[in-house]
Amino acid sequence: MLKSFVVAAALGAMLGACGPALAQSPPPVANPLDAIPDKMPFNTPYGPPISLARAQSLIAAATGEAEKHGWALNVAVVDSGANLVAFARMDGAQYASIAISEHKARAAVTYRRPTRLFEDALQLKDFKYILTLDGVIASRGGIPLIEDGKIIGAIGCSGGTGSQDEVACAAAAATIAK
User: Fold this and answer.
1) What is the pTM (predicted TM-score) of this model?
2) Domain assignments of the chain as residue spans, ordered by start
3) Which CATH code for domain 52-173?
4) CA nearest neighbour of 140 among 172, 159, 129
5) Which tens digits make up the pLDDT trace of 73-99?
6) What are residue 16's phi and psi, to 5 degrees?
7) Residue 78 CB contacts under 8 Å (≥ 6 apart), including other chains
8) Which of 69, 93, 94, 111 is the most buried (most CB within 10 A)?
């Protein structure tokens, strides 16, 4: 009985000594999802829809870039309302990427941001909430098309790696500024 009391007293003394150390632990790191930006992010206004002729020229630019590298891609261009305007499937491009290229373009225009940001949020920042948003695709290769400060549509490429898809889309999107 005395032995049990001594063990209990020793444990109590050790816990008492640890208590203040635990109480002095630094506060947990703030949740980055709780940050409140001063301005609304991704607030580029929607503009008039891209024309068929412009959409086709963007497809030509994207497929031209892909051909330089030997990549077989599917390329979709949607208007500012996320409606398909033009599509091309390069010879040999995989069938599954038809729908994926359209999905990337629609997500980019709907959320007014490149789909790479969804990929980064999920893969690099572990923001799992991205998976709960309707219409998101967390894979690079979808880029909004901005002219005169307004979104006129988006381009989506699929069939290569995400970085290959993104390079082809970026080459096409760069022609908007010219």
Assistant:
1) 0.81
2) 2-34, 52-173
3) 3.30.450.150
4) 159
5) 999 999 999 999 999 999 999 999 999
6) -65, -35
7) 84, 85, 102, 105, 106, 109, 153, 154, 156
8) 93
